[in-house]
Automatic annotation (TrEMBL):
Keywords: Membrane, Transmembrane, Transmembrane helix. Pfam families: MauE. It is a multi-pass membrane protein. This is Methylamine utilization protein MauE.
């Protein structure tokens, strides 16, 4: 189970760090995406532009340091609950809000974003469970570590590029609609 926890740890660290860097690189894009969230009070949107990437970086840091892995997983689990609630509320209300989690995107939030965040929540939750039950040690077997790193890389890629993956499953534009 330590290998699973290690893979979860790598996924959450990578996703949180990539999301934070994207938001910090383009705070205006992230701020614009928050404007569409009518369930977030207007007075909180501006502070969230700073607080969300700060929380993501803090979680990545907590998970990177051996002494704070359990705290990092628990913080990630709570944070991911909120991250999963956002697209659920957006989709349930029928809003067309663009997701700026990993930079500028023209794709509005959908079930794909809910699934992506649920997978991240599952990784954080599973990591929390293992850390609480077995401790937060790092496995020592090189082949197991290599497999955990590869699995984490694949899962991180799927999470970060969910918009591109979702586009593969959308129906193509009808030939007659191209000129309109």
């Amino acid at each position: 189970m330590l290998y699973v926890s290690f893979a979860c740890r790598l996924v959450v660290v990578a996703v949180m760090a990539l999301a934070a860097v994207a938001k910090l690189r383009s705070p205006g894009t992230f701020a614009a995406s928050l404007e569409g969230l009518d369930f977030v009070p207007a007075r909180l949107r501006r502070p969230l532009v700073v607080l969300v990437p700060a929380a993501e970086l803090l979680i990545a840091l907590l998970l990177a340091l051996p002494a704070t892995v359990t705290a990092g997983f628990l913080a990630a689990t709570l944070f991911c609950c909120g991250l999963t609630a956002v697209p659920i509320l957006v989709v349930a209300r029928g809003k067309k809000v663009k997701c700026a989690c990993f930079g500028a995107s023209e794709v509005p939030m959908s079930g794909w974003h809910i699934a992506r965040n649920a997978v991240l929540l599952a990784a954080a939750g599973l990591g929390s469970f293992v850390a609480l039950a077995l401790g937060d040690g790092v496995p020592a077997d090189v082949p197991g570590i290599a497999l955990a790193v590869v699995a984490a890389g694949v899962l991180t890629t799927l999470i970060v590029f969910v918009d591109d993956i979702a586009a593969l499953f959308q129906s193509p534009v009808a030939a007659g609609d191209l000129g309109r």
